[in-house]
Amino acid sequence: MGYKESRIEYCNYIADRIFNKLKDKQEYELLTYALCGMYLGLRNNDILKLEWDQFNLENKIIKNVYLTKLSNQRGKEVKVDITFPVNLTIPFYERFKYALNRWSERTNDKIKVFPNLKTWGTSDRIGEIIGVLGFNTHDLRSMSIVLLDGIKL
Q1: pLDDT tens digits for 140-149?
Q2: Entry pTM
Q3: Could you give the CA distance from residue 140 to residue 68 in angstroms, rounded to a whole number?
Q4: Torsion 16-20-22-28 (CA) sign
């Protein structure tokens, strides 16, 4: 087995582990968050900005997602915004539908999808539940490249 195949196998293993462990613990907010990073490649800040009315499950899209990039250039933080929103097709639709439906039944916030999550600590909670030390939110984003490789949306 070559590097690419072993990387795909590992990412699929971790994706299944994240889905199953968070589902078993009924951590639906974390599960929905993880799916957004893992299957959409969204950055932490972009995930935390999502609102319920952006999700159109009937058409399998997330509407009007503004993608941002925070970078540190020569000690100065610079925020770069894409000036137009994009619509993202939802891959692995059944997993998203499951997580979104379970989370929407449990949250009182009808505007923000992730009212309880903060910029820091979310990945630590996910890593603790799935049993992966040092897990971080960028790992989800990195996995998206491998998981979506070759999938026709």
Answers
A1: 988 988 887 7
A2: 0.85
A3: 17
A4: positive
